Amino acid sequence: MIKQQRYVRETAHPKRRTIPLAFGVTIIFCLLILRLWYLQILYVDEYRALSENNRLRFLPVAASRGALMDRNGTVIVRNRPSFSLALIPQEITDVEAMLDRLASLLGLDRAELEERWQKTRGRARYYPVVVATNITRDQVEIVEENRLRLAGVEISMKPVREYNFKQSAAHLLGYIGEVSEKELDSEAYLDYNPGDYVGKNGIEKAWEAELHGEDGGRQLEVDSRGRVLRVLNESQPTVGNSLVLTIDQRLQQAAERAFGSHAGAAVVMDVTNGEILAFVSSPTFDPALFAGKIPTDIWEKYLNDKRHPLQNKALSGQYPPGSTFKMITALAGLEAGVINESTTVHCDGTYEMGSGKFRCWSRAGHGSVNLRRSLKESCDVYYYHLGERLGIDRLAAMCRRFGLGETMGIGLPGEKKGLIPTTEWKLKRFGRRWVPGDTPPAAIGQGYVLMTPIQMVSMVATIANEGTVFRPRLVKQLVDADGKVLKEFVPEILGRVGASVANFKKVKQGLYAVVNDAGGTGAAARVSDLKVAGKTGTSQVVKLREDRKRRMAYEYQDHALFTAFAPYDKPEVAVAVVVEHGGGGGAVAAPIAGQILRAWSDLKKPPQRSASPLEEEIDIQPQSGIASPVDAGAVSTEKEPSE
Question: Which carries the bigger pLDDT value, residue 386 or residue 131?
Fold first, then answer.
């Protein structure tokens, strides 16, 4: 009995230890079964793809951007090859060591490499991560020489922009740069990858969708060392579409030469359809620098320049239009019946309203002034009177008919609206009522009134064509890589002023006198064999006492303005020039406009026909005493070549 009890105790003890062990083994086995189900059934497609990617590599092939051409087919912007350094995440076991090695071998900034690498976290591990762009050919050779030490490192070629005319029209054309993290997260850039180049400003940004094209790529089979075994799949990139712009590059360069070292803007427009023929914002910048990392000294120079070279002044520069605005005030007065061409005002140099006193630019005054003379000599007192009789709201209503106070919709980023004040605007903006003393400065384009150069050229173009407000246009055609026209852009009318033709002609006669009559303030804009009509303007930046003007710093000097159209009899072209802190419009801005119009006129003339080789040979014959067929019967008076 005792033996039997001892046997039961001895056999029960191992059983008690076996049960928990069996239970644990069962749980582990179940977990393994669940894991196998998870891997081989639930996520089989994902892990199959990952398995394939262990031996496959995808290399993107960037598409070339479309070219930018001027209206004559001259290529302004094209592409050139650029080399980039990329890492394949799945083939690099120690990223930190690899970044150290690359920085040491190629002389690259280690922190910048790290920053680029971190930005791409979360993307497919088989997709190349661009860590350096625009590397030199010497750096490419170093990578190839050290290929065995740089497993997972690839050199890719991407096209970047080449600007055939360097800094010309930089604000219009814009520039490209690497796509940012913020852009990659937006819906517009879903098909882009880190390291891709995109338009950042100007035409490049506004027309990114058409210019970019569609990237291609190659799927490669590689061995454990990253060596290519074969190409499994390949898709060719699609070149982006090209744009034919409205500008004439010859006129563009002539306008830039005329502007010289001044700061400001100049815009030339076709008055018959709104096409922009030249677009100058000065000072300019080098757009090619933005495709890579801009040298620190150049970037600081751009930022610290008081003349703001990175600002597109033709679109976002807002200036008091000064006396160029008087053409609007004059037309508003004629349309309201407040004045006619014979209405006179006596100018003694000042205009008093209540306790306020407003001065004319001519301290001695102009005497008795009618409409034509008020424009020709830019009499301020005439327009102080007219502004008071019109009132600000009637003046603003005429401005709205010209499309002023709103963006013109030119299609570039950064366009500003300017400002046309009203009684309602002042009350809403400042909480104060419009007072009579606010109107005289507004009537001469000062006070609260602000306009952009693109609005100024539209204003004078609308005067020239007698009432049609065209939307300014920069693109004539969209063409594909084979030169086939995909879309032709036609003129778009924003509105019509609705003023009488007779009143337009009265204003235009005054503008003609500005340039061509004795005593006109715009005489410096005269062009031989071309009838020019225009209006000078000088706008104050700050209100200072006369005795302090000589001591004013650059940024407090007056702006110089001039707007014009030509030919007077049958207008074709309009120009607006704003010289920041340039002084007098007649002395500074008018000559620039004259040079631009001279260049425009010369470009319209048919080119001189060059003599053929046969004709050149015949021209030499008279020098030998033999009459040419043209001069047969005449006696040559030319000296011998030896003399």
Answer: 386
